[in-house]
Amino acid sequence: MTPILRGLSVLALALAPIGVGAEPATSVLKRDFAFPEPVEGMPARLSEFPDLQINAFTTNDGVSISYWEAGSGEPVLFVPAWGSNGAELIDVIWLLSRTHHVYVMDPRNQGLSERTAKGQRIARHAMDLNQLLDHLELDRTVLAGWSMGAAVIWAYVDLFGTDHITRAVFVDQPVSIYTHADWTEEERLNAGGMTTSPERMIAAFAGAPTNQQVVDMKVTHRARMLDTPHIRNATSFAQAVIPSDPDHAALVLFDHATNDWRDVISHKLDMPVAVFSGEESNNLPSQAWIARTVPDGRLYSYTAEQQGDHMLMLKNPVGFVSDLRAFLAGE
Fold first, then answer.
1. Long-range contacts from 301-306, C-beta under 8 angstroms, 24+ separation
2. Which keywords accompany this UniProt record (predicted)?
3. Structural domain includes residue 183
């Protein structure tokens, strides 16, 4: 199974050009790509997005981390979902880069980043994010996390604080995937608990038989519904240019599933926060909890018609980027 289909800068930084040494995406990928479905306002081919760059840096434990970037202005750095990458966010990058300097990090073992057995913990992913911010010399930036990417940002805040974050954006990530046996149902809903067995959850994501009491499988069910041209184009692009390696991607899942981020959300998020979810996601109650728990939170809940599920950024990038721009503008 494809894992989940197989985030104001200082003025000088905000107006900085694409990073020195970055290469055009077509050069790095050594190919052009024709998107299978024409969508008005979107490029028909990758070569029609010449501003898109791909670069990489090496972490302090010797792992090469790739990142995608385009645009200029206020920086927004995305950390994508488990198994996801910059290719899947191609439409979000295109749309948001009209007004912002957009970065998408490929986490270790995902996208174009190096495959490794090292550092398969959310804390290490947070260190990678910290080192990417240092590499890019981003003193003040917006961090946006989708699914596991939100957990990486919560870990970053826990370890390194919020001095470099102007605003934060979280897309449909449970506060605690693991359901504790002594929780009330209200606590489970607020945390977003979706399994009582991380091992069986991981096995289910790999295709083992399961049921809804073992793990919430609505995420994978909705992920398989390639029900908009945007997600069909993004998925086709990612499948064409990203090597498939679900075994390496799975290494971080146990640690990801067993973290509980309620203390970080309750006590450490001191910047404006936008939370995105929708009525087709079982995570919606926990996303509402995040928005009302942080000091300055706003919930964007999408309807079924607006593709309000775990994949909302990929299925409805126009709506997502419009709402994101409004949030970044303080509207």
1. 301/277, 302/276, 302/277, 302/278, 303/278, 303/279, 304/278, 304/279, 304/280, 306/278
2. Hydrolase, Signal
3. yes
Query: What does the alpha-carbon distance between residue 277 and residue 173 come to, in Å, rounded to a whole number?
Result: 9
The mean per-residue pLDDT over the stretch 27-55 comes to 97
Q: What is the domain range of residue 159?
A: 11-328
Pairwise pLDDT comparison (273 vs 243), residue with the higher score: 273
Residue 89 included in any domain: yes
Mind giving me the DSSP string for 52-79?
-EEEEEE-TTS-EEEEEEE--SSEEEEE
- pLDDT, mean of residues 209-233: 88
pLDDT of 2 over the 60 cut: no
Query: How far is the CA of 192 from the CAs of 62, 115, 252, 257, in angstroms?
Result: 35, 30, 19, 11
Percent of the chain with pLDDT over 70: 94
Q: Per the domain annotation, does 6 fall within a domain?
A: no
- Helix or strand holding residue 158 (H, E): helix 148-160
pTM of the model: 0.92
Structure tokens at 217: 């499988």
Closest CA to 46 of 240, 229, 231, 223: 240
94: in domain? yes
Tens of pLDDT, residues 140-189: 999 999 999 999 999 999 999 999 999 999 999 999 999 999 999 999 99
- Per-residue tokens: 192: 């977003």
Q: How many CB atoms lie within 10 A of CB 121?
A: 16
Residue 257's pLDDT is 96
Q: Cα Rg for the chain, rounded, in angstroms?
A: 18
Three-state SS for 9?
Answer: coil
Which residue, among 12, 30, 314, has the nearest Cα to 139 in the 3D structure?
12
| CA–CA–CA angle 283, 154, 105 (5° rounding) | 95
- pLDDT at site 212: 82
For 235-260, what is the mean pLDDT?
A: 95
| Two structure tokens written together for 1 | 């199974």
CA 165 to each of CA 95, 105, 130, 169, 270: distance values in angstroms, whole numbers, following the listed order: 22, 16, 11, 11, 9
For the chain, how many structural domains are there in total?
Answer: 1
